[in-house]
Amino acid sequence: MKKLSFLLFTLLAVTMFTSCLKDEPNKDIFTAEVTINSRTSGGAGNIVFSNNLGVIEIDNANMTIKFTTGYKDINGAGHNLTTPAMPLTPVGGAIYSFSDSGSSLNGISNLNGYIDMLTTTAWYSFTLNGTEKVISTTDLIFSYATMTVTNPDNGNNNSYYNFQCAFFLDETGKKCSMVITNFSPNLNGQIVANQIAWKDLTVTPTATGYHITTEMAESSIKGFHTAKNLDFVVTLTDQSRRIDGSFMCNDLNIKIEGDLFPKAQL
């Protein structure tokens, strides 16, 4: 059975979540400020990206969740979104689902999503005006993934689960940073960096999510662990929310694949 890791990103997420909590008269209600990235698709394959500040409000007493944020329609016009308080349904571990029929949201239907209460990673989607699909996420923290390191000369390999991989999109949706915790670019499991980052990766919105690429990117540890031929597909559909990709590092092939939420629990 895979070991699941909630390491530095989890600690950061919990710290950020706690630091953003606002004092409320009702201590059972907590709010956190987050970044929410939305991509709207429709028409002749058009995709519109928007980067928004958002607030997640969780009522622990009544087990509900509410989002206040923004998004853009397929024509690029901005809209505000304030959902009703939606019931949280446990689906396994720290993962909860939520949904709303859209009866209280003008032009919006079939809103549904998930949240990881440990990392506060959230995903939701809805239909706009019957024809447009809006898919939104907080920063993408993949805690349920596998990293396989392979020596291309002889095929020797080893797989690791004790790490997290995250993508942080900029406000344009055209660039992002990739950050990995407990990075082990070797076959013996030695951790060379508790946290390492590669910046200015190219992001291309697709019909199902994002395509992230670069020919070469220096790491945050100057002079070491340069990423080459990086190519990742991030899928964010109603049926699948996962990451699949690879890059070369230290003359070894690094492959990362896994889910935004534990697949067995959805």
Write the layout of secondary structure elements.
Layout: H1 8-19, E1 29-42, E2 46-59, E3 64-72, E4 78-82, E5 86-87, E6 89-92, E7 95-100, E8 108-116, E9 121-128, E10 132-137, E11 140-142, E12 144-150, E13 157-160, E14 165-169, E15 175-183, E16 193-205, E17 209-217, E18 227-236, E19 241-249, E20 252-259
Antiparallel strand pairs: 1-2, 1-10, 2-3, 3-4, 3-5, 6-7, 7-8, 8-9, 9-10, 11-14, 12-13, 12-20, 14-15, 15-16, 16-17, 17-18, 18-19, 19-20
How would you summarize what this structure contains?
The chain is mostly beta strands. The protein has one helix at residues 8-19, and strands spanning 29-42, 46-59, 64-72, 78-82, 86-87, 89-92, 95-100, 108-116, 121-128, 132-137, 140-142, 144-150, 157-160, 165-169, 175-183, 193-205, 209-217, 227-236, 241-249, 252-259.
Give a verbal description of the structure.
The chain is mainly beta and 266 residues long. The chain has 2 domains: 8-137, Lipocalin, CATH 2.40.128; 140-265, Lipocalin (Beta Barrel), CATH 2.40.128. 5% of the residues lie in helices and 58% in strands. The chain contains 1 helix and 20 strands. The protein has one helix at residues 8-19; strands at residues 29-42, 46-59, 64-72, 78-82, 86-87, 89-92, 95-100, 108-116, 121-128, 132-137, 140-142, 144-150, 157-160, 165-169, 175-183, 193-205, 209-217, 227-236, 241-249, 252-259. Strands 1, 2, 3, 4, 5, 6, 7, 8, 9 and 10 form a 10-stranded antiparallel β-sheet that branches. It has a 10-stranded antiparallel β-sheet with strand order 11-14-15-16-17-18-19-20-12-13, with no helix packed on it. The longest helix has 12 residues, at 8-19. It starts with 7 loop residues before the first helix and ends in a 7-residue tail after the last strand. The model is unreliable at 1-23 (pLDDT under 50).
